[in-house]
Amino acid sequence: MGDRVRVGMIGTSWYADSLHLPSLTSHPQAEVTAICGRNADRAQEMAAKFGIPQVYTDYRAMLESGQIDAVVIAAPDDLHYPMAMAALEAGLHVVCEKPLALDLAQARAMALRADAAGVKHMVFFTLRWFQHLRYLKELVEGGYVGQPTYLQLAYIAGGARAGNYRWRYDGDRANGILGDLGSHLIDLARWVNGDIVRVAAHLANFVPRTHEDGRAVTPSNDSAALLLEYANGSQGVIQATGVAQTGGRGLEQQVRLYGLDGTLEVDFRFGNFGGAPPTMTVRGARAGANTFDDLPIPARIWGAVHPDDPNAVFNLMPAGDRYFIDCILHDRRVTPDFWEGVAVQAVIDAAKESQRSGRWVEVAPPRG
């Protein structure tokens, strides 16, 4: 491999186009040598846009080509397991989009196989690299809230209000909003507040969907509410919805962390109507304070990124795919790795069981 990493891209979605490929091609020691998509015309279009020499419609052929050292899997959730296992069998380093798999059994098998292969592996939990949440974690680790008592997380979106077919809301292919936006929040919850040990969940489906041929879609949740108990004794709630009327606000993320010594509030709004720039705010109140103080994100966290374009972190900083390339080149431990994806999957499975049984459910340990 030398001082360069040859990467294959599986997936030709808007997300591969707007995030993964710009990030990969911005790294001076990464070379995107192949792209694979089921639509050959779309794959050719993206190959031309990013200067990718090899185009495939069969991911197995790409994985076995000998032309790549690593692969980024940005395909629907039901394809993560077979694609990742094939990549690991080929001895490749693997980035897999979240959630890692359809269920805990698949996720564990993927993590065990990745360890056995001796390769680098990462789940793409995007929020870990955003500036407001890196600052939140730094404040928590510095003791700002003291003993945590309650963590409230919300991810509010409206993109699922239409009844058109979308694989994320097909119960045969994915775990709905719980797997989509909810997996981000579960990982964030664990990252800043530790292990989740019990879950009580209500998963709802408000918008019926049909396939393009008119057949009814096996419903999956488009709104999810989880009550959580953490290993540190604190309580929490996670809310994720894709069917909110956002009034032009785009997507909203909200964090409220309460502790015996203080409170932290974090808000992120992006994709706003009219093209307004994203906004990130961090506020805090220490014990005894009568007001909240604004806590500006330090310049050292922003680095080369302008606050009006926080997504540029993936093109300018060691974040996401760029971070993964660095870990390969310098043989560094990767986080979040597949085992952290397994831990999130365990919470998703517990939430689904709670919905089925109507009771609190213990979260299984990642390694069984």
Write up this protein.
This protein is an alpha/beta fold. It has two domains: 141 residues, 3-Layer(aba) Sandwich (Rossmann fold); 177 residues, 2-Layer Sandwich (Dihydrodipicolinate Reductase, domain 2), CATH 3.30.360. The chain has eleven helices and 15 strands. It has a nine-stranded mixed beta sheet with strand order 14-13-12-11-7-10-9-8-15. Strands 3-2-1-4-5-6 form a six-stranded parallel beta sheet, with helices on both faces. α2 links the parallel β2 and β3. α1 packs across α10. The mean pLDDT is 96.
Radius of gyration from the CA trace? 20 Å
Overall average residue pLDDT? 96
Number-wise, the strands total 15
What is the string of helix and strand elements?
Answer: EHEHEHEHEHEHEHEEEEEEEHHHHE
Secondary structure class reads alpha/beta
Q: Into how many domains do the coordinates divide?
A: 2
CATH topology annotation of the largest domain: Dihydrodipicolinate Reductase, domain 2
The CATH class of the largest domain, by name, is: Alpha Beta
Tell the overall outline.
globular
Identify the CATH architecture of the largest domain.
Answer: 2-Layer Sandwich
Main sheet record: 9 strands, mixed
